[in-house]
Design a protein that fits this description.
Glucose Permease (Domain IIA), 13 strands, 14% helix
Amino acid sequence: MLKQALAAGLLAAGATAALPVPRPIAAALEAVQVAAAPTQSKPFGLPFADPPGPSTWLLIQGYGNTATAYRWRVSQYGAGQGLHFGLDLSARCGTPVIAIGEGVVRKVDAAEHGAGPHNLMLDHGNGYVSFYGHLYETPRLAPGDPVARGQVVAHSGDPDLTCTSRPHLHLEIRESQGLRVAFNPVTLIDADWDALSLVGGRGFQRDLDNPRQWQFLDDQPDVTFGGPLLNQYAHPWPPEWNSR
């Protein structure tokens, strides 16, 4: 915007393309260009090559203290301290899943990590692993295989094995040494999360005794698997339907 305004001002004053830009204006233009340049401060990309949309994929549940995870915090999410320890991205069965970063295959169909019927884990060599769950079929990869960022490594499926009930990809990012800690993918994946969350991902459970805690996509806590529940609220909102 500033660059356009400055250019318009020069033309209005009778400037031509051949005239040099005054030094203060040139400095201002350079500052705007530097500020607008992508920083690429986040190490990973999205797990789909196609842009989001109703015919491709959408964010349907965020990471962390979601209302869905709270309702099932003991029976389904108890091992993850009552939180949703990944992202859920809706996609038709068979949608190509790409590696969010360069790395090597660490595990294939590791049932101990859940997210069946099939899953895949990639080690990125930077302290993180990515985990792709609810895959349509066993990935055609083996532990130790190298993968490139953006390479198709799997295809999305449905945890119910129907491809009609709730087909989606479950994506986690964990620490690589012991796999005991899950991190918020939103803080590590370069994407327009504000736009993605217009459809889903903002339904967080509120503790009325601390109502501002964990209410945004990017402020959710790390999960230590096997740790105590983090969201056992005395006064939750929305209120509980029944005890889980």
